[in-house]
Amino acid sequence: MNDDPGVALVRLAELLGAELRTASVEGSTSPASSQARIVRVTQDSRQVQADTLFCCISGTEQDGHMFAADAVAAGAVALLTERPLGLGVDEIVVSDSRAALAIAAAEVSGRPSEHLGVVGVTGTNGKTTVVSMIAGVLNHAGRVARSIGTLTSERTTPEAPELQRLLAEMLDQGVTDVAIEVSSHALMLHRVDETQFAVGVFTNLGHDHMDFHSTPEQYFAAKAKLFEPGRCRNAVVYLGDTHGKLLYEASGRTMVGVSLDQAAELSVGVAGSSFLWRDTPVNLRMAGRHNVVNALLAAESCLLLGLEVDQIAQGLSTLEGVSGRFEIIRFMTAGGEAAAVVDYAHTPDALEQALLAARDLVTPGARLHVVFGCGGDRD
Length: 379
Fold this sequence. Notes:
By secondary structure, this protein is of the alpha/beta class. Helices cover 31% and strands 24% of the residues. A six-stranded mixed sheet has the order 3-2-8-7-6-5. A six-stranded parallel sheet has the order 10-11-9-12-13-14, with helices on both faces. A three-stranded antiparallel sheet has the order 15-16-17. A hairpin with a 2-residue loop joins strand 16 (272-277) and strand 17. Helix 3 (97-108) runs parallel beside helix 5, helix 4 (127-140) crosses helix 11 and helix 10 packs across helix 11. The protein is elongated, with a radius of gyration of 23 Å.
């Protein structure tokens, strides 16, 4: 990383292919001669500090240009904007401020992903479990790994400035690898632009986020963006999913295909699953066939990151599972032992898989009771 504090504002303008201008409060403009150095990039005016570049995002509900004056008052030394605002500070005017934000954020943070083994996991279901598995296996093997996603962030994938800042902080702390949940929103809204992925993982595609993508085809196209040239060096795809197989066959690049058949001698129970992966025994402490698939995706990813088969198998066997993800709670009743399963399933496909997995655990004569609901404000 670059130890020099900040990045010259003129350098950011060059990277963005835009002219740096100084806009006066009277509305006239002139070429900027600013020597400002940017140490922070944000699209949130409440987070502005000294030496901050404030990016004006035209959102679906709010227009960030409306908060530019607040940002300047709070100390922003320059604006990244889609139109001249005339607030008396330097401006970089671009056609797409979201795309520009990602470039600026990565540059100011020192492009940390270039120095990390970053794995991006996308798909409708399974992202949280897979990133947790990858980080857990890597840590067990002696690497220093972290994960970013639903369990650590307000959004599944943080906005570009927060993501780049997190990666930079992790790099400074000695982290070697990071597994990131990559949502379709993040791919469409440029949150992971300029992040270099060592491995991209596709879990599956189901019905979700139709309030944002409008059609299943658009949703799939958004997920597929992770595997475009230049995004990730390697790819792992679940072939048991129709869209995963389509991605595998149509991508035009080499991908590692994963299927449940690769788990030989599979045995599934309440205590977990056991199987052979690449002729090596794995004892997974997580129930459900879907978790076996998640483990296979994580295993192939770690293999691409340089771990040995034995290291990966041992690491998978130590994992305890993710809270709230097909989490089994055992308890006693007047009629004997019972078990409850707590799961995050919130899509038709996820609920179906959870029920199938739960049915596998039900002994003859026992009953399966289901309680489900949804948070609303979604499609």
